[in-house]
Amino acid sequence: MNPALVHFIQRCHENKLESLIILSVCIGFFSLAAAGLLNGLRATTHYQALKEAQSKYPSITMVKNVRFVQDKNVVTTDGITSGIDGALQLDGPEVTDIMVYTRDASLPPGTIL
Fold this sequence. Notes:
Elements: H1 3-14, E1 22-24, H2 29-34, E2 42-43, H3 50-56, E3 61-62, E4 68-71, E5 74-77, H4 82-89
Parallel strand pairs: 1-5, 2-3
Antiparallel strand pairs: 4-5
Organism: Fibrella forsythiae
Keywords: Membrane, Transmembrane, Transmembrane helix
InterPro entries: Class_I_gatase-like, DJ-1/PfpI, INH-QAR
């Protein structure tokens, strides 16, 4: 897990950026969860990571067998291609000025899911 990324996500959350829509793709879920952004929300992640997500983050309601979940201003998706579905769910004239991309997750780089 990239501590700088988790800190950035926490700062956005602490600064009450509710207007900021956050989307995670696949196991990017773990970065949002580590930052505490998903506490009390419904979310999803790749099906092979669901058990780990449920045990590691019991305050998050994990939703199975869906392409994406939107809860408040957070969209989580279950895999790479479902990131497209999640992005299409976003609505509004806003265009974000900041995009954060990370490959960090609880699985080692190069893991094929």
